[in-house]
């Protein structure tokens, strides 16, 4: 699943599963499980941005949290920088934390309202005992410079900032321990459109300067096209398609990817009238009771008999292009 022969994978995920129990009845017995992530595998190369897209509830954010083991994994393995995250003890995991960080979706909810900006950004440094108090203070100011925040605001509180500025505080906090890998969990979803581009440009600039590797989770396909090197498309807990960005947008292979991209607005009015929208019928099935066979078979416009009986293999059908669809199983 190599992205570039010269680079090695920084993140390697194999058969990742995240199932959440459902309890019911008078005795609160386990009656089922929500299969939020149901056996996915992929790699992220050093210095690469992998975009992870899909509609709400498909399991994107769960993947991001599982990679950093903010959840206990149901199954599978996750390796970051050759360290086994999935089976590490709490002490080992704590030592690995500086390597991997997260930028959260809602900057309002992810920042402590009772802490100043300097305290928020400096918290990882204190937690991992990096440097003296004076060195930590210098590092906080340096991080504020990196993300474009005025040093004079160091003693202000989160409520005194705009949404874009709050997200910059979250980015500075994520950078504090010099991580190699950052999960960006819809970092622009809660921001105004005019601010979104600024934050994405900042993330790209920091990546170039610091050699960062991103998993960029989003439902904004146009923004993913701007920032990602490769794109993985998720549907109901599984990856439907994984491909280099330009290939995926030019020629989507999976019927779900085709439908998803057909919904992206075309800014040119002369081209907009020629775009053929693929309308998917029905609702997304429940992840607690996914369909038998291909999980997209209940809504797929190209469904075949085999789709309802057997789950398609996620396989490489062209160089660097992976699809889970029976249409490509004999290619």
Can you tell me about this structure?
It is a single chain. This protein has 331 residues and is of the alpha/beta class. Helix content is 30%, strand content 25%. The protein is built from 11 helices and 12 strands. It has helices at 60-67, 90-96, 107-110, 117-127, 133-146, 163-175, 193-210, 221-227, 245-250, 255-262, 269-272; strands at 9-24, 29-45, 49-53, 75-80, 83-84, 100-103, 181-185, 213-217, 230-235, 238-244, 314-318, 321-324. It has an 8-stranded mixed β-sheet, sandwiched between helices. A 4-stranded antiparallel β-sheet has the order 2-1-4-5. Helix 4 packs parallel to helix 6 and helix 5 (133-146) crosses helix 6. The chain is globular, with a radius of gyration of 21 Å. The two termini are 18 Å apart. Mean pLDDT is 91; it is low at 1-5.
Q: What is the N-to-C succession of helices and strands? A: EEEHEEHEHHHHEHEHEEHHHEE
Secondary-structure content class: alpha/beta
Uncertain segments of ≥5 residues (pLDDT<50)? 1-5
Task: Give the overall average pLDDT.
Answer: 91
Summary?
The chain has 331 residues and is α/β, with parallel strands linked by helices.
Give a quick set of tags describing it.
331 residues, alpha/beta, eight-stranded mixed β-sheet, four-stranded antiparallel β-sheet, 11 helices, globular, disordered N terminus
What's the arrangement of secondary structure elements?
Blueprint: E1 9-24, E2 29-45, E3 49-53, H1 60-67, E4 75-80, E5 83-84, H2 90-96, E6 100-103, H3 107-110, H4 117-127, H5 133-146, H6 163-175, E7 181-185, H7 193-210, E8 213-217, H8 221-227, E9 230-235, E10 238-244, H9 245-250, H10 255-262, H11 269-272, E11 314-318, E12 321-324
Parallel strand pairs: 3-8, 3-9, 6-7, 7-8
Antiparallel strand pairs: 1-2, 1-4, 4-5, 9-10, 10-12, 11-12
């Amino acid at each position: 699943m190599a992205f570039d022969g010269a680079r090695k994978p920084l993140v390697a995920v194999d058969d990742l599963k995240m199932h959440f129990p459902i309890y019911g009845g008078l005795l609160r017995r386990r009656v089922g499980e929500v299969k939020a992530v149901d056996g996915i595998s992929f790699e992220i190369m050093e210095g690469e941005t992998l975009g992870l897209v899909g509609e709400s509830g498909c399991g994107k954010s769960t993947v991001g949290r599982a990679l950093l083991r903010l959840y206990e994994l149901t199954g599978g393995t996750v390796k970051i920088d050759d360290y086994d995250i999935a089976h590490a003890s709490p002490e080992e995991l704590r030592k690995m934390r500086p390597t991997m960080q997260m930028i959260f979706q809602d900057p309002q909810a992810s920042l402590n309202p009772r802490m100043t900006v300097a305290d928020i950004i400096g918290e990882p440094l204190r937690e991992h005992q990096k440097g003296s108090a004076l060195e930590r203070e210098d590092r906080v100011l340096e991080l504020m410079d990196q993300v474009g925040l005025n040093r004079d605001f160091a003693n202000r509180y989160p409520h005194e900032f705009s949404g874009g500025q709050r997200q910059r505080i979250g980015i500075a906090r994520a950078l504090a321990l010099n991580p190699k890998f950052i999960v960006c969990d819809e970092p622009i979803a809660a921001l105004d459109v005019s601010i979104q581009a600024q934050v994405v440009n900042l993330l790209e600039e920091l990546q170039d300067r610091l050699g960062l590797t991103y998993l960029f989770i989003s439902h904004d396909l146009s923004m993913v096209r701007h920032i990602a090197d490769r794109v993985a498309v998720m549907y109901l807990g599984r990856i439907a398609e994984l491909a280099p960005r330009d290939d995926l947008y030019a020629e989507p292979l999976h019927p779900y990817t085709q439908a998803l991209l057909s919904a992206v607005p075309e800014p040119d009015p002369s081209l907009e009238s020629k775009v053929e929208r693929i309308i998917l019928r029905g609702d997304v099935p429940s992840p607690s009771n996914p369909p038998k066979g291909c999980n997209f078979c209940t809504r797929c416009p190209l469904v075949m008999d085999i789709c309802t009986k057997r789950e398609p293999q996620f396989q490489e059908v062209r160089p660097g292009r992976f699809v889970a669809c029976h249409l490509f199983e004999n290619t």
